[in-house]
Write a structure and sequence with these properties.
- By secondary structure, this protein is α+β, with helices and mostly antiparallel strands.
- It contains 9 helices and 8 strands.
- The protein is globular.
- The termini are far apart.
Protein backbone atom coordinates (compact mmCIF):
# COMPACT_ATOMS: atom_id res chain seq x y z
CA UNK A 1 0.00 0.00 0.00
CA UNK A 2 1.42 3.36 -0.94
CA UNK A 3 1.86 5.97 1.73
CA UNK A 4 -0.12 9.06 0.60
CA UNK A 5 2.42 11.32 2.19
CA UNK A 6 5.08 9.94 -0.14
CA UNK A 7 3.15 10.95 -3.27
CA UNK A 8 4.54 14.45 -3.51
CA UNK A 9 5.11 14.35 -7.25
CA UNK A 10 1.84 14.53 -9.07
CA UNK A 11 1.06 13.44 -12.62
CA UNK A 12 3.96 11.02 -12.54
CA UNK A 13 4.58 9.73 -16.09
CA UNK A 14 4.32 5.96 -15.97
CA UNK A 15 3.20 4.38 -19.22
CA UNK A 16 1.22 1.17 -19.38
CA UNK A 17 0.20 -1.05 -22.27
CA UNK A 18 -3.50 -1.02 -22.95
CA UNK A 19 -5.30 -4.36 -22.70
CA UNK A 20 -8.49 -5.12 -24.60
CA UNK A 21 -10.60 -5.48 -21.50
CA UNK A 22 -13.06 -3.13 -19.98
CA UNK A 23 -12.61 -1.09 -16.86
CA UNK A 24 -15.21 0.92 -15.08
CA UNK A 25 -13.60 4.18 -14.10
CA UNK A 26 -16.10 5.82 -11.79
CA UNK A 27 -15.35 9.44 -11.11
CA UNK A 28 -17.66 11.16 -8.68
CA UNK A 29 -17.05 14.22 -6.60
CA UNK A 30 -18.18 14.32 -3.04
CA UNK A 31 -21.80 15.47 -2.89
CA UNK A 32 -22.24 19.21 -2.81
CA UNK A 33 -22.09 20.41 0.74
CA UNK A 34 -23.95 23.55 1.63
CA UNK A 35 -23.14 24.78 5.10
CA UNK A 36 -25.31 27.82 5.51
CA UNK A 37 -24.65 28.49 1.80
CA UNK A 38 -21.01 29.07 2.66
CA UNK A 39 -19.31 26.07 1.03
CA UNK A 40 -19.87 24.36 -2.34
CA UNK A 41 -17.34 21.74 -3.38
CA UNK A 42 -15.85 21.63 -6.91
CA UNK A 43 -17.97 19.60 -9.33
CA UNK A 44 -16.63 17.40 -12.10
CA UNK A 45 -18.11 18.69 -15.35
CA UNK A 46 -18.12 15.31 -17.08
CA UNK A 47 -18.05 11.84 -15.58
CA UNK A 48 -17.90 9.70 -18.74
CA UNK A 49 -14.24 8.79 -18.34
CA UNK A 50 -13.22 5.26 -19.26
CA UNK A 51 -9.87 3.51 -19.25
CA UNK A 52 -8.19 0.12 -19.67
CA UNK A 53 -6.24 -1.96 -17.22
CA UNK A 54 -2.50 -2.21 -17.57
CA UNK A 55 -2.17 -5.80 -18.91
CA UNK A 56 -0.18 -7.12 -15.95
CA UNK A 57 -2.90 -5.93 -13.57
CA UNK A 58 -5.65 -7.53 -15.64
CA UNK A 59 -3.85 -10.83 -16.07
CA UNK A 60 -3.46 -11.05 -12.29
CA UNK A 61 -7.10 -10.10 -11.77
CA UNK A 62 -6.15 -7.03 -9.77
CA UNK A 63 -9.00 -4.72 -8.81
CA UNK A 64 -9.36 -1.80 -6.47
CA UNK A 65 -10.45 1.71 -5.71
CA UNK A 66 -8.08 4.66 -5.88
CA UNK A 67 -9.01 7.79 -3.95
CA UNK A 68 -7.48 10.86 -5.55
CA UNK A 69 -7.06 14.14 -3.73
CA UNK A 70 -7.17 16.95 -6.30
CA UNK A 71 -6.61 20.68 -6.01
CA UNK A 72 -9.03 22.53 -8.27
CA UNK A 73 -8.07 26.05 -9.28
CA UNK A 74 -10.43 28.94 -10.10
CA UNK A 75 -10.04 27.98 -13.75
CA UNK A 76 -11.46 24.52 -13.04
CA UNK A 77 -8.14 22.86 -13.87
CA UNK A 78 -6.45 20.25 -11.70
CA UNK A 79 -3.18 21.74 -10.47
CA UNK A 80 -2.20 18.96 -8.07
CA UNK A 81 -3.14 15.30 -7.84
CA UNK A 82 -2.24 13.06 -4.92
CA UNK A 83 -3.11 9.52 -3.90
CA UNK A 84 -5.28 9.91 -0.79
CA UNK A 85 -5.83 6.16 -0.59
CA UNK A 86 -4.02 3.63 -2.75
CA UNK A 87 -5.70 0.72 -4.49
CA UNK A 88 -2.75 -1.33 -3.30
CA UNK A 89 -1.46 -1.61 -6.88
CA UNK A 90 0.88 0.96 -8.43
CA UNK A 91 -0.36 0.35 -12.00
CA UNK A 92 -3.95 1.19 -11.04
CA UNK A 93 -2.85 4.20 -9.00
CA UNK A 94 -0.82 5.58 -11.91
CA UNK A 95 -3.68 5.00 -14.36
CA UNK A 96 -5.94 7.10 -12.13
CA UNK A 97 -3.32 9.86 -11.86
CA UNK A 98 -3.01 9.99 -15.66
CA UNK A 99 -6.75 10.51 -16.05
CA UNK A 100 -6.64 13.43 -13.59
CA UNK A 101 -4.70 15.43 -16.18
CA UNK A 102 -7.73 15.77 -18.45
CA UNK A 103 -10.41 16.33 -15.83
CA UNK A 104 -12.14 19.69 -15.64
CA UNK A 105 -14.33 21.05 -12.85
CA UNK A 106 -16.75 23.76 -12.00
CA UNK A 107 -14.80 25.62 -9.29
CA UNK A 108 -15.92 25.38 -5.68
CA UNK A 109 -17.16 28.33 -3.63
CA UNK A 110 -16.88 29.65 -0.11
CA UNK A 111 -19.29 32.36 0.96
CA UNK A 112 -20.50 32.70 -2.62
CA UNK A 113 -17.00 33.42 -3.94
CA UNK A 114 -15.13 30.98 -6.23
CA UNK A 115 -12.09 29.51 -4.48
CA UNK A 116 -9.27 27.09 -5.22
CA UNK A 117 -10.22 24.02 -3.20
CA UNK A 118 -9.33 20.37 -2.72
CA UNK A 119 -11.75 17.57 -3.61
CA UNK A 120 -11.58 13.79 -3.20
CA UNK A 121 -12.43 11.56 -6.20
CA UNK A 122 -12.91 7.77 -6.06
CA UNK A 123 -11.70 5.84 -9.12
CA UNK A 124 -12.93 2.23 -9.25
CA UNK A 125 -11.29 -0.48 -11.38
CA UNK A 126 -13.35 -3.64 -11.87
CA UNK A 127 -12.47 -6.58 -14.12
CA UNK A 128 -16.13 -7.53 -14.53
CA UNK A 129 -17.24 -4.10 -15.69
CA UNK A 130 -18.01 -3.42 -19.33
CA UNK A 131 -17.56 -0.41 -21.55
CA UNK A 132 -20.40 0.88 -23.68
CA UNK A 133 -20.06 -1.15 -26.88
CA UNK A 134 -21.35 1.46 -29.28
CA UNK A 135 -20.68 5.09 -29.95
CA UNK A 136 -22.57 7.69 -31.95
CA UNK A 137 -19.90 8.62 -34.47
CA UNK A 138 -21.79 11.62 -35.79
CA UNK A 139 -22.12 13.05 -32.30
CA UNK A 140 -18.47 12.25 -31.63
CA UNK A 141 -17.47 14.08 -34.81
CA UNK A 142 -19.63 17.08 -33.90
CA UNK A 143 -18.03 17.36 -30.46
CA UNK A 144 -14.49 17.03 -31.82
CA UNK A 145 -15.08 19.78 -34.39
CA UNK A 146 -16.61 21.98 -31.69
CA UNK A 147 -13.60 21.63 -29.40
CA UNK A 148 -11.11 21.98 -32.24
CA UNK A 149 -12.74 25.27 -33.14
CA UNK A 150 -12.53 26.43 -29.52
CA UNK A 151 -8.88 25.31 -29.37
CA UNK A 152 -8.11 27.76 -32.17
CA UNK A 153 -9.78 30.74 -30.49
CA UNK A 154 -9.84 32.57 -27.18
CA UNK A 155 -7.00 33.10 -24.75
CA UNK A 156 -4.31 30.58 -23.89
CA UNK A 157 -6.23 29.07 -20.99
CA UNK A 158 -9.41 28.60 -23.03
CA UNK A 159 -7.43 26.92 -25.79
CA UNK A 160 -5.81 24.53 -23.34
CA UNK A 161 -9.21 23.54 -21.92
CA UNK A 162 -10.51 22.86 -25.43
CA UNK A 163 -7.43 20.78 -26.25
CA UNK A 164 -8.09 18.64 -23.18
CA UNK A 165 -11.62 18.07 -24.41
CA UNK A 166 -10.33 17.02 -27.85
CA UNK A 167 -8.01 14.51 -26.18
CA UNK A 168 -10.83 13.22 -24.01
CA UNK A 169 -12.95 12.64 -27.13
CA UNK A 170 -10.05 10.76 -28.69
CA UNK A 171 -9.60 8.57 -25.61
CA UNK A 172 -13.30 7.74 -25.60
CA UNK A 173 -13.35 6.60 -29.23
CA UNK A 174 -10.02 4.75 -28.98
CA UNK A 175 -11.26 2.81 -25.94
CA UNK A 176 -14.44 1.94 -27.80
CA UNK A 177 -12.52 0.74 -30.85
CA UNK A 178 -10.24 -1.49 -28.79
CA UNK A 179 -13.03 -2.92 -26.66
CA UNK A 180 -15.24 -3.81 -29.65
CA UNK A 181 -12.40 -4.64 -32.08
CA UNK A 182 -14.48 -3.07 -34.83
CA UNK A 183 -12.99 -1.56 -37.98
CA UNK A 184 -16.22 0.32 -38.78
CA UNK A 185 -15.01 3.71 -37.46
CA UNK A 186 -11.91 3.75 -39.72
CA UNK A 187 -13.41 5.88 -42.50
CA UNK A 188 -14.62 8.37 -39.89
CA UNK A 189 -11.21 8.51 -38.25
CA UNK A 190 -9.34 8.92 -41.51
CA UNK A 191 -11.63 11.79 -42.48
CA UNK A 192 -10.94 13.51 -39.14
CA UNK A 193 -7.17 13.24 -38.89
CA UNK A 194 -4.73 15.66 -40.49
CA UNK A 195 -3.85 14.87 -44.16
CA UNK A 196 -0.16 14.03 -43.55
CA UNK A 197 -1.15 11.37 -41.03
CA UNK A 198 -4.02 10.09 -43.16
CA UNK A 199 -1.72 9.72 -46.17
CA UNK A 200 0.71 7.64 -44.09
CA UNK A 201 -1.83 5.10 -42.87
CA UNK A 202 -4.81 5.04 -45.24
CA UNK A 203 -3.44 2.02 -47.14
CA UNK A 204 -3.95 -0.11 -44.04
CA UNK A 205 -7.29 1.08 -42.78
CA UNK A 206 -9.05 -2.11 -43.91
CA UNK A 207 -7.08 -4.28 -41.49
CA UNK A 208 -6.53 -2.17 -38.39
CA UNK A 209 -8.81 -0.07 -36.13
CA UNK A 210 -6.08 2.60 -35.85
CA UNK A 211 -6.89 3.81 -32.39
CA UNK A 212 -3.32 5.14 -32.08
CA UNK A 213 -3.74 7.44 -35.09
CA UNK A 214 -6.04 9.65 -33.01
CA UNK A 215 -3.19 10.51 -30.66
CA UNK A 216 -0.76 11.02 -33.51
CA UNK A 217 -3.26 13.52 -34.89
CA UNK A 218 -3.48 15.28 -31.50
CA UNK A 219 0.30 15.69 -31.29
CA UNK A 220 0.38 16.98 -34.88
CA UNK A 221 -2.28 19.60 -34.14
CA UNK A 222 -1.20 20.64 -30.64
CA UNK A 223 2.56 20.11 -30.22
CA UNK A 224 2.72 22.64 -27.38
CA UNK A 225 -0.32 21.40 -25.46
CA UNK A 226 -0.21 20.80 -21.72
CA UNK A 227 -1.40 17.28 -22.59
CA UNK A 228 1.52 16.47 -24.91
CA UNK A 229 3.13 13.96 -22.54
CA UNK A 230 -0.18 12.25 -21.88
CA UNK A 231 -0.99 12.03 -25.60
CA UNK A 232 2.48 10.61 -26.32
CA UNK A 233 1.88 7.95 -23.70
CA UNK A 234 -1.47 7.02 -25.20
CA UNK A 235 0.09 6.91 -28.67
CA UNK A 236 2.77 4.46 -27.54
CA UNK A 237 0.37 2.31 -25.52
CA UNK A 238 -2.27 2.00 -28.22
CA UNK A 239 0.35 1.42 -30.92
CA UNK A 240 1.98 -1.41 -28.97
CA UNK A 241 -1.43 -2.89 -28.28
CA UNK A 242 -2.44 -2.81 -31.94
CA UNK A 243 0.87 -4.41 -32.97
CA UNK A 244 0.26 -7.23 -30.49
CA UNK A 245 -3.13 -7.84 -32.14
CA UNK A 246 -1.49 -8.12 -35.56
CA UNK A 247 1.08 -10.75 -34.60
CA UNK A 248 -1.23 -13.80 -34.95
CA UNK A 249 -1.77 -12.93 -38.62
CA UNK A 250 1.86 -13.59 -39.46
CA UNK A 251 1.35 -17.32 -39.93
CA UNK A 252 -1.73 -16.95 -42.14
CA UNK A 253 -1.50 -16.75 -45.90
CA UNK A 254 -4.23 -14.41 -47.04
CA UNK A 255 -4.38 -10.96 -48.67
CA UNK A 256 -5.20 -9.41 -45.27
CA UNK A 257 -2.32 -11.24 -43.62
CA UNK A 258 0.10 -9.98 -46.27
CA UNK A 259 -1.13 -6.42 -45.70
CA UNK A 260 -0.69 -6.88 -41.97
CA UNK A 261 2.86 -8.18 -42.39
CA UNK A 262 3.71 -5.13 -44.50
CA UNK A 263 2.11 -2.92 -41.87
CA UNK A 264 4.18 -4.56 -39.13
CA UNK A 265 7.34 -3.81 -41.06
CA UNK A 266 6.21 -0.19 -41.45
CA UNK A 267 5.48 0.11 -37.73
CA UNK A 268 8.85 -1.40 -36.85
CA UNK A 269 10.55 1.31 -38.87
Amino acid sequence: MRNPASTSTYFRPRRYLLAGVAVLLVLACHPVRDVGRRYISPQLESDDFTAFYPPEAYEKGLEGKVELLLRIELSGDVSEALIAKSSGHDDLDNAALSMAQIMHFKPGQIGGEPRALWVKIPVIFSVASKLVTSIDLEEWRRMVLKYRSAAAEGDSHERQIAQKEVLRCYVRLANNMVSTRSVAPNSMIMAMVAPPIRDSWIEYQAVLPFSFVLFQDFLHRYPDSECTNLAEGYLRDYLVYEVSQLQPALSADSPAARVKRRLLRTLAQ
